[in-house]
């Protein structure tokens, strides 16, 4: 063609030659001829220019020269020569592929930011294309692999919003929850976990996600949301029992914080009931929490007992107080049935103290009016006779706690029993130790 450059057929002949070279996979030679055409024949027909650009783009692509291929495809599209929509679509696909290949190449070289830039700009050609969707998804993966979790999460959230029906977005909530947790974006992590709890098809994953969301809100000190989601968990997932129990215990603790004693006691009852359901499979933790819950109910009964005053006529008010005493004793005995050391010693002390207080209450009770001195003396003797058995019972129970110290148990309740015995039996328990000194030498 260089001999017949002025021949009007020269440009066509060179285009055909370039096309033939491309067809035979001689891409480097095809590029040389194709790129000469618009340079030599500036007035060449648009169709020939378009063909040369197409050969250039395809050849550069096959040679792995993706940046130059992209440039050729863009120039070709900008000429406006292509009128067939299917051909335009085809070139656009090749253009996006050349960008995607640049992204892959720069990622392989470790040029992360450049790779992400290429992946994202595919959407500038056609945001709805399969390759643009894949590019955005791959950009997320690149950022995540570099532990750039906040940026990765932003892109993954964009992917989910842009392509809500895409299969690649099915696990977006799981991945986002993980990214947000690892990057300590706690409110966002909790939101994603709640999405999983609401929409996932796996019951176990739904349960775990709900519980974790509640934990995060507790960590954030958002009491209302922690209550809401621990409550939902406890009502929805009875198994595994150990986790349900912890959810119930969180409800107990949270209602203590907001001072809602009525609702707190609902969950105390639930803990006791769950422990009973667990039967022989109950864990030490479950037994402890059930004993702790029962002890609270025993304390409620004790407070009710202590609120009853002994008034005239003594026989009637004493009967009312003794009835309350029976309820209180039963409640503490239930707490000791769990055989949890802390609540056994506490219950023993409380029961002993109940008897001691009852004895004191009898002695301090209201006296009848208009008694003679002799009658008053006899009445006092009667009161002592009423009080004595209660005091004896108190001493016996405090001694039970005292003997626990011989087995190495010396918690605050055992110590309180020792203190009570010093008061109740000072001759025996409130003695000062005598130090005996001696010498070994004889003078």
Q: How many angstroms separate the termini? A: 139 Å
Oligomer: single chain
Mean pLDDT: 88
**Helix-and-strand structural type:** mainly alpha
How many E strands?
Answer: 0
Q: Which word captures the global form?
A: rod-shaped
Biggest sheet details: none
Strand content: under 5%
The helicity comes to over 70%
Question: What's the gyration radius in Å?
Answer: 44 Å
Discrete helix count: 21
Uncertain segments are: none
Mind explaining what this structure looks like?
- The structure is a single chain.
- The protein has helices at 10-23, 27-40, 46-62, 66-79, 85-108, 112-121, 123-126, 130-145, 149-162, 172-182, 186-199, 203-219, 223-236, 241-257, 261-278, 284-306, 314-336, 341-363, 373-404, 412-424, 426-429.
- It has 443 residues and is mainly α.
- Helix 15 packs across helix 16.
- The longest helix is centred in the C-terminal third of the chain and has 32 residues, at 373-404.
- The chain is 76% helix and 0% strand.
- The protein contains 21 helices and no strands.
- The mean pLDDT is 88.
